[in-house]
Amino acid sequence: MASAKHEWSGWRTAAERALYGAGGFFRRPEGPAGHFRTSVHASPLFARAVAELLCRVDEALGHPAEVALVDLGAGRGELLTRVLALAPGLPHGLAGRLRPYAVERAARPAGLDGRIGWLDAPPEGCAGLLFANEWLDNVPVDVAETDADGVPRRVEVDLASLDGTERLGDPVDGVDAAWLARWWPLAGAEPGLRAEIGHPRDAAWARAVGSLRAGLAVAVDYAHERATRPPFGTLTGFREGREVRPVPDGSCDLTAHVAMDACAAATDVSGAAMDAPATTTDAPTTTTDASAAGTAASGAAMDTSGAATDAPAGAGGPGAGLLTQREALRALGLDAHRPPLALASTDPTAYVRALSAAGEAAELTDPAGLGAFTWLLHPVNLPHDVLRP
Q: Are 197 and 297 in contact (CB under 8 A)?
């Protein structure tokens, strides 16, 4: 009997094809909202908070003639659509100066507001707010696992069977090994520990930040930091609102939490990308995301020897750093307090509206749910911390 055919690949290449290739998950007609619910979909209050942040960036920039709002990983344009609906009420004539851009690899959806530019990479040289909500977790990365001797090896997945079958490949080396040593040490660990090798995300984020001439870049995502890395990694799948086994067949989302501290260190204090090694190993033939086009496979903060260098999590200027979504949304004025009961008797309609808004705000700031998301902020040529009213 002939042996079954296999086509082994690293997870980075497999996920790139499954998510963004022809017929890939993010190119499907129903869009991401058909499978999972983000903060954008949970409540219009999230768009209101983004609009407030945009106003603060506009204020810090001195109300320029044009203010960009770049939605990186825009889905079907839901966030921009909601912000545009709020735009007539924004101060300083911002509605007339606003330039909204959706950055997405899927085709432009029919009926989208004509004011929204639809791009496959962030526009260069803009001033304003770049906002990436649950984008970095879908920048494909390779996975490493320790073998019986504690040696980190690349995890390979079978592209022929398309059932998620895995095996251990060659030892991790080069830039991948340097990134692991700095950000997610595995060498010498017990067998079976796993890590997602995050330097493609570092490169993607550094490039996104570098597209801004001035303003603020914000990434919001599931995240972890070096001291609390999950021992078995986080790669998983989602389909129709349910977590499923990660299978690179285009039928499900493939996502892994983000080493956000590494992304924070991937840009210098001016927001420019840090230097990366000139050579890389095992780089895929296609880019992992639109904004990473043309970059090397590594974008982590590294010296020319390939050894990672330390950079503060707060790099990027005043107000840069990491905080929870709960902290960020509260700083932007989101209030989860219930309205006074007396309002129910004096203005029942207002009471019901306020009660509903409080419930939505509570969901967005729940420390055991969406409120635990991490916000990474990188100011670029901003004079002060815009999260302080």
A: no
Half-sphere exposure of 75 (CA within 13 A, CB side): 22
Euclidean distance between CA atoms 361 and 356, whole angstroms: 9
pLDDT at 43 over 90: no
**How far, in Å, CA of 104 to CA of 328, rounded?**
25
Q: What is the pLDDT of residue 33?
A: 59
Strand spans (E) along 32-125: 67-72, 98-103, 117-119
Pairwise CA distance, residues 121 & 99, whole Å:
15
Radius of gyration over every alpha carbon of the chain, rounded to an integer in angstroms: 21
Helix H or strand E encompassing 92: none
Quote the DSSP letter at residue 131.
E
Q: What pTM did the predictor assign?
A: 0.84
> How far from the centroid of its chain's Cα atoms is residue 58's Cα?
23
Q: Which two tokens stand for residue 373?
A: 């998301």
Q: Which of 91-100, 147-156, 223-232, 291-300 has the lowest mean pLDDT?
A: 291-300
> Exposed (0-12), middle (13-18) or buried (19+): which is 345, by Cβ within 10 Å?
exposed
Tell me how far apart the alpha carbons of residues 212 and 61 are, in angstroms, rounded to a whole number: 12
64 vs 368, higher pLDDT? 64
For residue 326, give the amino acid letter: R
Report which secondary-structure segment, H or E, holds 74. Answer: none
